[in-house]
Protein backbone atom coordinates (compact mmCIF):
# COMPACT_ATOMS: atom_id res chain seq x y z
CA UNK A 1 0.00 0.00 0.00
CA UNK A 2 3.05 2.26 -0.39
CA UNK A 3 2.82 5.31 1.90
CA UNK A 4 -0.91 5.27 2.76
CA UNK A 5 -0.47 4.21 6.37
CA UNK A 6 2.34 6.68 6.95
CA UNK A 7 0.32 9.56 5.52
CA UNK A 8 -2.79 8.65 7.50
CA UNK A 9 -0.77 8.43 10.73
CA UNK A 10 0.89 11.79 10.02
CA UNK A 11 -2.47 13.40 9.35
CA UNK A 12 -3.90 12.07 12.57
CA UNK A 13 -0.87 13.20 14.55
CA UNK A 14 -0.74 16.71 13.09
CA UNK A 15 -4.45 17.37 13.32
CA UNK A 16 -4.85 15.85 16.75
CA UNK A 17 -1.83 17.47 18.39
CA UNK A 18 -1.57 20.89 16.83
CA UNK A 19 -5.11 22.18 17.25
CA UNK A 20 -7.92 21.99 19.81
CA UNK A 21 -11.03 19.97 19.00
CA UNK A 22 -13.01 23.14 18.25
CA UNK A 23 -10.39 24.28 15.77
CA UNK A 24 -9.73 20.89 14.21
CA UNK A 25 -9.41 20.79 10.45
CA UNK A 26 -10.76 17.80 8.58
CA UNK A 27 -8.16 15.24 7.67
CA UNK A 28 -7.28 15.21 3.97
CA UNK A 29 -8.79 12.44 1.87
CA UNK A 30 -6.18 9.87 0.86
CA UNK A 31 -6.61 8.18 -2.52
CA UNK A 32 -4.50 6.97 -5.41
CA UNK A 33 -1.12 6.92 -3.70
CA UNK A 34 -0.79 3.13 -4.03
CA UNK A 35 -1.68 2.77 -7.71
CA UNK A 36 0.80 1.32 -10.18
CA UNK A 37 1.24 4.53 -12.16
CA UNK A 38 4.21 6.11 -10.41
CA UNK A 39 3.61 9.50 -12.06
CA UNK A 40 0.20 9.78 -10.48
CA UNK A 41 1.09 8.24 -7.14
CA UNK A 42 4.11 10.45 -6.56
CA UNK A 43 2.21 13.57 -7.57
CA UNK A 44 -0.63 12.79 -5.19
CA UNK A 45 1.80 12.01 -2.37
CA UNK A 46 3.47 15.38 -2.88
CA UNK A 47 0.14 17.20 -2.76
CA UNK A 48 -0.88 15.32 0.38
CA UNK A 49 2.36 16.31 2.06
CA UNK A 50 1.64 19.94 1.15
CA UNK A 51 -1.80 19.65 2.77
CA UNK A 52 -0.21 18.22 5.91
CA UNK A 53 2.25 21.10 6.00
CA UNK A 54 -0.46 23.78 5.71
CA UNK A 55 -3.71 22.03 6.71
CA UNK A 56 -5.72 25.27 6.90
CA UNK A 57 -5.01 26.35 3.31
CA UNK A 58 -8.06 26.11 1.07
CA UNK A 59 -5.93 26.66 -2.02
CA UNK A 60 -3.62 23.74 -1.26
CA UNK A 61 -6.56 21.51 -0.34
CA UNK A 62 -8.26 22.55 -3.58
CA UNK A 63 -5.21 21.60 -5.66
CA UNK A 64 -5.38 18.14 -4.15
CA UNK A 65 -9.05 18.03 -5.19
CA UNK A 66 -8.10 19.05 -8.73
CA UNK A 67 -5.58 16.22 -8.89
CA UNK A 68 -8.17 13.72 -7.72
CA UNK A 69 -10.71 15.16 -10.15
CA UNK A 70 -8.62 15.09 -13.31
CA UNK A 71 -7.21 11.66 -12.50
CA UNK A 72 -10.57 10.02 -12.01
CA UNK A 73 -10.79 9.76 -8.21
CA UNK A 74 -14.28 11.18 -8.22
CA UNK A 75 -15.36 10.50 -4.65
CA UNK A 76 -12.09 11.81 -3.22
CA UNK A 77 -12.35 14.91 -5.42
CA UNK A 78 -15.89 15.71 -4.27
CA UNK A 79 -14.99 15.37 -0.60
CA UNK A 80 -11.80 17.40 -1.03
CA UNK A 81 -13.54 20.21 -2.92
CA UNK A 82 -16.03 20.39 -0.07
CA UNK A 83 -13.17 20.72 2.41
CA UNK A 84 -11.51 23.40 0.28
CA UNK A 85 -14.78 25.36 0.13
CA UNK A 86 -15.11 25.25 3.90
CA UNK A 87 -11.53 26.45 4.34
CA UNK A 88 -11.86 29.19 1.69
CA UNK A 89 -15.52 29.98 0.92
CA UNK A 90 -14.55 32.91 -1.32
CA UNK A 91 -12.74 30.80 -3.93
CA UNK A 92 -15.01 30.35 -6.96
CA UNK A 93 -13.25 27.22 -8.16
CA UNK A 94 -14.09 24.69 -5.46
CA UNK A 95 -17.90 24.76 -5.66
CA UNK A 96 -17.61 25.22 -9.43
CA UNK A 97 -15.49 22.11 -9.92
CA UNK A 98 -17.63 20.25 -7.38
CA UNK A 99 -20.76 21.17 -9.36
CA UNK A 100 -19.36 19.70 -12.57
CA UNK A 101 -18.59 16.39 -10.89
CA UNK A 102 -22.12 16.20 -9.52
CA UNK A 103 -23.61 17.08 -12.93
CA UNK A 104 -21.64 14.24 -14.52
CA UNK A 105 -23.92 11.77 -12.71
CA UNK A 106 -27.06 13.73 -13.68
CA UNK A 107 -27.70 15.22 -10.22
CA UNK A 108 -28.55 18.53 -11.84
CA UNK A 109 -30.48 20.19 -9.04
CA UNK A 110 -27.62 19.56 -6.61
CA UNK A 111 -25.13 20.73 -9.22
CA UNK A 112 -27.13 23.94 -9.69
CA UNK A 113 -27.07 24.60 -5.95
CA UNK A 114 -23.29 24.27 -5.95
CA UNK A 115 -23.02 26.44 -9.03
CA UNK A 116 -25.06 29.13 -7.30
CA UNK A 117 -22.43 29.14 -4.53
CA UNK A 118 -19.73 29.74 -7.12
CA UNK A 119 -21.71 32.46 -8.92
CA UNK A 120 -22.34 34.22 -5.62
CA UNK A 121 -18.56 34.69 -5.49
CA UNK A 122 -18.06 35.61 -9.15
CA UNK A 123 -21.09 36.18 -11.36
CA UNK A 124 -19.00 37.37 -14.30
CA UNK A 125 -17.62 34.06 -15.56
CA UNK A 126 -19.45 33.24 -18.79
CA UNK A 127 -18.72 29.46 -18.94
CA UNK A 128 -20.47 29.07 -15.58
CA UNK A 129 -23.65 30.56 -17.04
CA UNK A 130 -23.38 28.27 -20.07
CA UNK A 131 -23.12 25.31 -17.70
CA UNK A 132 -26.07 26.62 -15.73
CA UNK A 133 -28.17 26.85 -18.88
CA UNK A 134 -27.21 23.34 -19.95
CA UNK A 135 -28.04 21.81 -16.57
CA UNK A 136 -31.34 23.71 -16.33
CA UNK A 137 -32.35 22.32 -19.71
CA UNK A 138 -31.48 18.82 -18.57
CA UNK A 139 -33.49 19.44 -15.40
CA UNK A 140 -36.50 20.36 -17.62
CA UNK A 141 -36.42 24.04 -16.67
CA UNK A 142 -36.17 25.68 -20.13
CA UNK A 143 -37.41 29.15 -19.13
CA UNK A 144 -34.76 29.38 -16.41
CA UNK A 145 -32.24 28.05 -18.92
CA UNK A 146 -33.15 30.85 -21.31
CA UNK A 147 -32.36 33.39 -18.60
CA UNK A 148 -28.98 31.74 -17.97
CA UNK A 149 -28.10 31.79 -21.68
CA UNK A 150 -29.19 35.43 -21.89
CA UNK A 151 -26.76 36.24 -19.08
CA UNK A 152 -24.02 34.26 -20.86
CA UNK A 153 -24.71 36.24 -24.02
CA UNK A 154 -24.30 39.50 -22.09
CA UNK A 155 -20.88 38.18 -21.03
CA UNK A 156 -19.86 37.62 -24.67
CA UNK A 157 -20.32 33.83 -24.72
CA UNK A 158 -21.76 33.67 -28.25
CA UNK A 159 -22.20 31.53 -30.32
CA UNK A 160 -22.62 29.00 -27.51
CA UNK A 161 -25.14 31.21 -25.73
CA UNK A 162 -27.13 31.67 -28.93
CA UNK A 163 -27.25 27.92 -29.45
CA UNK A 164 -28.43 27.46 -25.86
CA UNK A 165 -31.22 29.99 -26.36
CA UNK A 166 -32.34 28.14 -29.48
CA UNK A 167 -32.44 24.82 -27.62
CA UNK A 168 -34.43 26.47 -24.82
CA UNK A 169 -36.96 27.77 -27.33
CA UNK A 170 -37.28 24.32 -28.86
CA UNK A 171 -37.89 22.85 -25.40
CA UNK A 172 -41.00 25.04 -25.05
CA UNK A 173 -42.16 24.34 -28.61
CA UNK A 174 -41.11 27.64 -30.17
CA UNK A 175 -39.48 26.07 -33.22
CA UNK A 176 -39.90 29.03 -35.58
CA UNK A 177 -38.23 31.35 -33.07
CA UNK A 178 -35.47 28.80 -32.58
CA UNK A 179 -34.90 28.65 -36.35
CA UNK A 180 -34.38 32.41 -36.45
CA UNK A 181 -31.30 31.77 -34.28
CA UNK A 182 -30.24 28.43 -35.78
CA UNK A 183 -30.33 29.40 -39.48
CA UNK A 184 -27.50 31.97 -39.32
CA UNK A 185 -25.73 29.98 -36.60
CA UNK A 186 -25.56 26.85 -38.74
CA UNK A 187 -24.00 28.88 -41.57
CA UNK A 188 -21.39 30.63 -39.47
CA UNK A 189 -20.60 28.09 -36.75
CA UNK A 190 -20.06 24.71 -38.35
CA UNK A 191 -20.52 22.02 -35.72
CA UNK A 192 -22.30 18.66 -36.06
CA UNK A 193 -24.42 19.19 -32.94
CA UNK A 194 -25.58 22.58 -34.24
CA UNK A 195 -26.43 20.98 -37.59
CA UNK A 196 -28.37 18.16 -35.96
CA UNK A 197 -30.35 20.57 -33.75
CA UNK A 198 -31.01 22.73 -36.80
CA UNK A 199 -32.34 19.63 -38.55
CA UNK A 200 -34.64 18.82 -35.63
CA UNK A 201 -36.11 22.33 -35.72
CA UNK A 202 -36.56 22.18 -39.50
CA UNK A 203 -38.35 18.85 -39.20
CA UNK A 204 -40.62 20.26 -36.50
CA UNK A 205 -41.86 23.02 -38.85
CA UNK A 206 -42.34 20.62 -41.77
CA UNK A 207 -39.27 21.47 -43.87
CA UNK A 208 -38.37 17.82 -44.30
CA UNK A 209 -35.93 18.09 -47.24
CA UNK A 210 -33.91 20.82 -45.52
CA UNK A 211 -34.09 18.84 -42.28
CA UNK A 212 -32.71 15.73 -43.94
CA UNK A 213 -29.70 17.63 -45.28
CA UNK A 214 -29.01 19.29 -41.93
CA UNK A 215 -29.33 16.00 -40.06
CA UNK A 216 -26.87 14.40 -42.49
CA UNK A 217 -24.33 17.13 -41.69
CA UNK A 218 -24.92 16.44 -37.98
CA UNK A 219 -24.68 12.66 -38.23
CA UNK A 220 -21.58 12.41 -36.00
CA UNK A 221 -22.79 14.96 -33.47
CA UNK A 222 -21.19 15.13 -30.05
CA UNK A 223 -22.38 17.49 -27.30
CA UNK A 224 -21.25 21.06 -27.85
CA UNK A 225 -18.54 22.17 -25.45
CA UNK A 226 -16.98 25.57 -24.87
CA UNK A 227 -13.66 26.92 -23.62
CA UNK A 228 -13.38 26.95 -19.82
CA UNK A 229 -10.05 28.37 -18.68
CA UNK A 230 -10.73 27.80 -15.01
CA UNK A 231 -11.58 24.11 -15.36
CA UNK A 232 -8.54 23.78 -17.62
CA UNK A 233 -6.41 24.61 -14.56
CA UNK A 234 -6.96 20.99 -13.52
CA UNK A 235 -4.94 19.79 -16.50
CA UNK A 236 -1.61 20.44 -14.80
CA UNK A 237 -2.49 17.58 -12.45
CA UNK A 238 -3.48 15.23 -15.24
CA UNK A 239 -2.73 11.52 -14.98
CA UNK A 240 0.54 10.53 -16.57
CA UNK A 241 1.33 14.13 -17.49
CA UNK A 242 5.04 13.88 -16.67
CA UNK A 243 5.35 10.66 -18.65
CA UNK A 244 3.49 12.21 -21.54
CA UNK A 245 5.82 15.21 -21.64
CA UNK A 246 8.85 12.90 -21.52
CA UNK A 247 7.43 10.86 -24.41
CA UNK A 248 7.03 14.00 -26.51
CA UNK A 249 10.62 15.00 -25.80
CA UNK A 250 11.90 11.52 -26.72
CA UNK A 251 9.89 11.55 -29.95
CA UNK A 252 11.20 14.99 -30.95
CA UNK A 253 14.78 13.90 -30.29
CA UNK A 254 14.48 10.82 -32.50
CA UNK A 255 14.10 8.21 -29.76
CA UNK A 256 10.77 7.18 -31.23
CA UNK A 257 10.56 3.59 -30.01
CA UNK A 258 11.07 4.70 -26.40
CA UNK A 259 8.45 7.42 -26.87
CA UNK A 260 5.93 4.97 -28.31
CA UNK A 261 6.46 2.56 -25.41
CA UNK A 262 5.50 5.32 -22.95
CA UNK A 263 2.60 6.59 -25.05
CA UNK A 264 1.14 3.12 -25.43
CA UNK A 265 1.44 2.52 -21.68
CA UNK A 266 -0.41 5.77 -21.02
CA UNK A 267 -3.10 4.69 -23.46
CA UNK A 268 -3.82 1.86 -21.05
CA UNK A 269 -5.24 4.58 -18.78
CA UNK A 270 -6.60 6.75 -21.59
CA UNK A 271 -7.59 4.45 -24.49
CA UNK A 272 -8.44 5.81 -27.90
CA UNK A 273 -12.19 5.53 -27.36
CA UNK A 274 -11.94 8.06 -24.51
CA UNK A 275 -11.02 10.68 -27.12
CA UNK A 276 -14.66 10.62 -28.15
CA UNK A 277 -15.95 11.23 -24.64
CA UNK A 278 -16.27 14.50 -22.79
CA UNK A 279 -14.49 13.18 -19.69
CA UNK A 280 -10.76 12.54 -20.06
CA UNK A 281 -10.87 13.37 -23.78
CA UNK A 282 -8.02 15.89 -23.60
CA UNK A 283 -5.21 13.45 -22.80
CA UNK A 284 -6.68 10.57 -24.82
CA UNK A 285 -6.79 12.77 -27.94
CA UNK A 286 -3.33 14.19 -27.29
CA UNK A 287 -1.95 10.68 -26.86
CA UNK A 288 -3.41 9.62 -30.20
CA UNK A 289 -1.96 12.70 -31.88
CA UNK A 290 1.48 12.08 -30.34
CA UNK A 291 1.38 8.41 -31.40
CA UNK A 292 0.59 9.54 -34.96
CA UNK A 293 3.50 11.99 -34.96
CA UNK A 294 5.87 9.35 -33.55
CA UNK A 295 4.92 6.86 -36.28
CA UNK A 296 5.58 9.51 -38.90
CA UNK A 297 8.98 10.30 -37.40
CA UNK A 298 9.77 6.58 -37.44
CA UNK A 299 9.07 6.43 -41.19
CA UNK A 300 5.67 4.77 -40.88
CA UNK A 301 3.34 7.27 -42.61
CA UNK A 302 0.54 4.72 -43.15
CA UNK A 303 0.31 3.97 -39.40
CA UNK A 304 0.55 7.67 -38.67
CA UNK A 305 -2.27 8.57 -41.00
CA UNK A 306 -4.49 5.72 -39.81
CA UNK A 307 -4.10 6.87 -36.19
CA UNK A 308 -4.90 10.51 -36.83
CA UNK A 309 -7.88 9.62 -39.02
CA UNK A 310 -9.26 7.45 -36.21
CA UNK A 311 -8.80 10.45 -33.95
CA UNK A 312 -10.72 12.73 -36.30
CA UNK A 313 -13.49 10.16 -36.41
CA UNK A 314 -13.71 10.26 -32.62
CA UNK A 315 -13.31 14.02 -32.14
CA UNK A 316 -13.30 16.16 -35.29
CA UNK A 317 -13.18 19.32 -33.16
CA UNK A 318 -9.65 18.52 -31.86
CA UNK A 319 -7.52 21.00 -33.80
CA UNK A 320 -4.15 19.16 -33.44
CA UNK A 321 -5.53 16.22 -35.43
CA UNK A 322 -6.16 18.52 -38.38
CA UNK A 323 -2.66 19.99 -38.16
CA UNK A 324 -1.01 16.57 -37.96
CA UNK A 325 -2.97 15.25 -40.93
CA UNK A 326 -2.13 18.42 -42.84
CA UNK A 327 1.59 17.77 -42.32
CA UNK A 328 1.19 14.22 -43.62
CA UNK A 329 -0.74 15.44 -46.65
CA UNK A 330 1.87 18.10 -47.35
CA UNK A 331 4.58 15.44 -47.32
CA UNK A 332 2.49 13.63 -49.93
CA UNK A 333 2.20 16.88 -51.93
CA UNK A 334 -1.58 17.06 -51.50
CA UNK A 335 -1.38 20.72 -50.62
CA UNK A 336 -5.01 21.66 -51.27
CA UNK A 337 -6.38 19.01 -48.88
CA UNK A 338 -3.69 19.89 -46.36
CA UNK A 339 -4.76 23.54 -46.56
CA UNK A 340 -8.36 22.57 -45.90
CA UNK A 341 -7.37 20.81 -42.68
CA UNK A 342 -5.21 23.70 -41.51
CA UNK A 343 -8.09 26.10 -42.11
CA UNK A 344 -10.36 23.84 -40.05
CA UNK A 345 -7.77 23.94 -37.26
CA UNK A 346 -7.77 27.75 -37.41
CA UNK A 347 -11.57 27.83 -37.17
CA UNK A 348 -11.31 25.69 -34.04
CA UNK A 349 -8.45 27.71 -32.56
CA UNK A 350 -8.13 31.10 -34.29
CA UNK A 351 -5.35 32.31 -31.97
CA UNK A 352 -2.86 29.57 -32.87
CA UNK A 353 0.16 31.25 -34.42
CA UNK A 354 1.50 27.85 -35.47
CA UNK A 355 -1.66 27.08 -37.44
CA UNK A 356 -1.52 30.42 -39.26
CA UNK A 357 2.14 29.80 -40.09
CA UNK A 358 1.33 26.36 -41.49
CA UNK A 359 -1.43 27.90 -43.58
CA UNK A 360 1.06 30.42 -44.95
CA UNK A 361 3.55 27.70 -45.85
CA UNK A 362 0.90 25.75 -47.76
CA UNK A 363 -0.27 28.87 -49.58
CA UNK A 364 3.36 29.61 -50.45
CA UNK A 365 3.68 26.10 -51.88
CA UNK A 366 0.57 26.76 -53.97
CA UNK A 367 2.18 29.98 -55.30
CA UNK A 368 -0.48 32.10 -53.60
CA UNK A 369 2.15 34.48 -52.28
CA UNK A 370 -0.06 37.41 -51.36
CA UNK A 371 -2.32 35.13 -49.30
CA UNK A 372 0.75 33.48 -47.77
CA UNK A 373 2.11 36.87 -46.74
CA UNK A 374 -1.18 37.72 -45.02
CA UNK A 375 -1.18 34.37 -43.22
CA UNK A 376 2.36 34.89 -41.90
CA UNK A 377 1.42 38.38 -40.73
CA UNK A 378 -1.55 36.86 -38.87
CA UNK A 379 0.75 34.30 -37.26
CA UNK A 380 3.05 37.06 -36.02
CA UNK A 381 0.13 38.77 -34.30
CA UNK A 382 -0.14 35.73 -32.02
CA UNK A 383 3.57 34.85 -31.82
CA UNK A 384 5.48 38.08 -32.34
CA UNK A 385 9.12 37.69 -33.24
CA UNK A 386 8.98 33.98 -34.09
CA UNK A 387 11.99 33.31 -36.30
CA UNK A 388 10.48 30.72 -38.65
CA UNK A 389 7.42 32.86 -39.33
CA UNK A 390 9.53 35.92 -40.04
CA UNK A 391 11.71 33.87 -42.38
CA UNK A 392 8.75 32.59 -44.38
CA UNK A 393 7.26 36.08 -44.44
CA UNK A 394 10.50 37.31 -45.96
CA UNK A 395 10.36 34.58 -48.63
CA UNK A 396 6.82 35.62 -49.55
CA UNK A 397 7.92 39.25 -49.77
CA UNK A 398 10.78 38.24 -52.09
CA UNK A 399 8.32 36.43 -54.36
CA UNK A 400 6.17 39.57 -54.41
CA UNK A 401 9.27 41.70 -55.19
CA UNK A 402 8.71 43.62 -51.94
CA UNK A 403 12.42 43.72 -51.30
CA UNK A 404 12.48 46.57 -48.81
CA UNK A 405 9.99 44.66 -46.65
CA UNK A 406 12.00 41.47 -47.14
CA UNK A 407 15.15 43.23 -45.92
CA UNK A 408 13.35 44.17 -42.72
CA UNK A 409 12.00 40.63 -42.19
CA UNK A 410 15.37 38.94 -42.78
CA UNK A 411 17.16 41.52 -40.64
CA UNK A 412 14.82 40.64 -37.77
CA UNK A 413 15.49 36.95 -38.41
CA UNK A 414 19.23 37.45 -38.15
CA UNK A 415 18.89 39.61 -35.05
CA UNK A 416 17.00 36.77 -33.35
CA UNK A 417 19.44 34.11 -34.56
CA UNK A 418 22.63 35.68 -35.98
CA UNK A 419 24.18 32.32 -36.90
CA UNK A 420 21.22 31.22 -39.04
CA UNK A 421 23.09 30.90 -42.34
CA UNK A 422 20.04 30.80 -44.61
CA UNK A 423 18.71 33.95 -42.98
CA UNK A 424 21.97 35.70 -43.84
CA UNK A 425 21.76 34.36 -47.42
CA UNK A 426 18.34 35.88 -47.99
CA UNK A 427 19.25 39.08 -46.19
CA UNK A 428 22.17 39.44 -48.60
CA UNK A 429 19.94 38.71 -51.59
CA UNK A 430 17.28 41.21 -50.53
CA UNK A 431 19.86 43.92 -49.80
CA UNK A 432 21.34 43.35 -53.24
CA UNK A 433 17.94 43.73 -54.89
CA UNK A 434 17.50 47.18 -53.35
CA UNK A 435 20.99 48.23 -54.37
CA UNK A 436 22.64 48.16 -50.95
CA UNK A 437 25.64 46.28 -52.30
CA UNK A 438 28.13 46.85 -49.47
CA UNK A 439 25.65 45.64 -46.84
CA UNK A 440 24.77 42.70 -49.07
CA UNK A 441 28.45 41.75 -49.30
CA UNK A 442 28.78 41.79 -45.53
CA UNK A 443 25.70 39.58 -45.12
CA UNK A 444 27.09 37.25 -47.82
CA UNK A 445 30.36 36.98 -45.92
CA UNK A 446 28.50 36.09 -42.74
CA UNK A 447 26.45 33.50 -44.61
CA UNK A 448 29.63 31.89 -45.92
CA UNK A 449 31.22 32.00 -42.45
CA UNK A 450 28.19 30.30 -40.89
CA UNK A 451 28.20 27.43 -43.39
CA UNK A 452 25.52 28.38 -45.91
CA UNK A 453 24.71 26.05 -48.79
CA UNK A 454 27.31 26.62 -51.58
CA UNK A 455 24.60 26.68 -54.26
CA UNK A 456 22.78 29.50 -52.45
CA UNK A 457 26.05 31.40 -52.04
CA UNK A 458 26.83 31.03 -55.75
CA UNK A 459 23.39 32.36 -56.65
CA UNK A 460 24.00 35.43 -54.50
CA UNK A 461 27.46 35.87 -55.94
CA UNK A 462 26.12 35.92 -59.51
CA UNK A 463 23.47 38.47 -58.54
CA UNK A 464 26.00 40.68 -56.80
CA UNK A 465 28.45 40.58 -59.71
CA UNK A 466 25.71 41.43 -62.20
CA UNK A 467 24.57 44.36 -60.08
CA UNK A 468 28.15 45.60 -59.58
CA UNK A 469 28.86 45.34 -63.31
CA UNK A 470 25.82 47.44 -64.10
CA UNK A 471 26.51 50.13 -61.54
CA UNK A 472 26.93 53.51 -63.21
CA UNK A 473 30.46 54.85 -63.22
CA UNK A 474 31.07 57.84 -61.01
CA UNK A 475 31.59 61.01 -63.04
CA UNK A 476 35.19 62.11 -63.26
CA UNK A 477 36.26 64.34 -60.43
How do the strands and helices of this protein lay out in sequence?
Blueprint: H1 4-18, H2 38-53, H3 58-70, H4 74-87, H5 93-103, H6 108-121, H7 126-138, H8 142-154, H9 160-171, H10 175-188, H11 192-204, H12 208-217, H13 229-232, H14 241-252, H15 256-266, H16 281-297, H17 301-314, H18 319-331, H19 335-348, H20 353-365, H21 369-382, H22 387-399, H23 403-416, H24 421-433, H25 437-449, H26 454-469
* Uncertain residue ranges: 1-22, 473-477
Beta strands, count:
0
* Helix residue percentage: over 70%
What general form does the structure show?
Answer: globular
Q: Major sheet, described briefly?
A: none
Question: First CA to last CA: what distance?
Answer: 95 Å
Series of secondary-structure elements, N-terminal to C-terminal: HHHHHHHHHHHHHHHHHHHHHHHHHH
Number of helices: 26
Oligomer kind: single chain
Mean pLDDT: 89
Structure description:
The chain is mainly α and 477 residues long. It has 26 helices and no strands. It has helices at residues 4-18, 38-53, 58-70, 74-87, 93-103, 108-121, 126-138, 142-154, 160-171, 175-188, 192-204, 208-217, 229-232, 241-252, 256-266, 281-297, 301-314, 319-331, 335-348, 353-365, 369-382, 387-399, 403-416, 421-433, 437-449, 454-469. Helix 16 packs antiparallel against helix 17 (301-314). Residues 1-22 and 473-477 have low confidence and may be disordered.
